Amino acid sequence: MFKLLFTGVGRRIELLQAFREASLNLNIDIRIYGADMAGSAPALCWCDETRKVCAMRDPGYIDDLITICKNDNIDLLIPTIDTDLLVLSHSIDRFAGIGTRVLISDPDMISVCRDKNYTSDFFLKCGLKAPRTYNDTADYDGGFPAFIKPKDGSSSINAYRVDSDSELSSYAGMIEDYIIQPFVSGTEYTVDIFCDFEGNPVYITPRIRLAVRAGEVLKTEIVKDDIIVDEMKALCSEFKPCGPITVQLIRDSSSGDDYYIEINPRFGGGAPLSMKAGARSAEAILRLLDGERPGFVPDAAAPGHIYSRFDQSVYIHKPDIKRIRGAIFDLDDTLYPESEYVMSGYRLIADHLGYAGYADILMDHFRNKEPAVDRLLEDIGRIDEKEECIRIYREQMPSISLYEGASELIRRLIENNIRVGIITDGRVLSQRNKILALGINKLIADDDIIITDALGGPQFRKPDDLSFRIMQRRWKLPAEEMIYIGDNLSKDHQGPRKVGMGFVHFNNPDGIYDHDHGMFDYITVNSFSELTGLFRDLTG
What is the pTM of this model? Predict the structure, then answer.
């Protein structure tokens, strides 16, 4: 299990999805943590855990991250925007002291990237061409059109083409600290580069910027270009990047020369597109954490692939209960106390072992978060019976019962034409036996019950959203008219939010799992009587 903390997650959903896919492809477990100040970033819905931090420019920002990394045993911190790069690079040793690696280059190199004057000089040092840089309108003699932008800017904010001295003076008055460069006309490229922790290139992927908005690519084409690749190898030998960097250049339409204009020492917004084409840097990170040393992979990304991107909304506020036409329940610790299921299985194991008191011993180990069956069998010298004990536990027809008021609420919702369903994680046989033991099959139709493992395996468990999309299509209801009720804030709210459903937190004081504090706005109830009251306007 590797724990990854992403700072400034914002809208970097594609990047998080790339790490999920890498985890599945390599069969390496990961847990994704997202740090955010406001708790409204859409990418937080794709994180396993969310953590609140102060503003990146706040003096306490690094302390906040150190606390998170220490408390959550974070293996790797991955920054995603420019704002915190320099302060993070100066704090690498502090993170290393608590066992957390930061995927970031040396402070001197970050400074080169953050000041466009230094960036231009660095390109020249690498033997590459770059537009000449000016810092004062009075000194500019590079002709028109020209380009003016902040020397430490990003996302094309306050970056303008200018066509005359008067325009140049006007824009210069709007930008506090600017640079001016002759305008280079030609084909714009982004190069996604990924290096190992020592700065050795693993992937170099050039792509043409076919359409751009606010500095981020909307449409791109992967290309094979040995000239650019060789130029980037020269850059890497001087830069020694740790992990990802993104380089931008323009190939002059007249001379055919490459003019380099920018370096971003982080994953660029379009970097997941290179991963989709074959330059799988998310996989490379997991391999590096696992002790491998991947070498350079030439032409990893398939040339000719064109990717076009789009926006999608995520629901982050409290649901409007009066509009609800479909209610989906979690099962364990939401409709019944899971501790009953655990104890039921332990009693059966105790019967098999021939001593009823073993059930209480197993439960004590379980509450202490220990491998209960292993500990007991080791203590009594019967570890060879582990497989049989696990089978008994998993295949049990449990002795469990619904929370008081649960069946009445389900009936009242159905009587008032509210669709009712269940989405639950777990092994298929175990979950089906629970449903039979609770009599839920007599209340809710089979087609309205989804056991996520039955969709193709554990990879479809929450927070994956496939089960919620399936239920929505079955019911043919707008997502905003559906709601999910679950107890576990570490995984239950992300899936429904991804598809636009509301979420109600069943704050179960007797639940057996710890809960993430959560950052999104949601309704909380503490009992079925409160939940019944919440739906009173719908059920009368």
Answer: 0.83
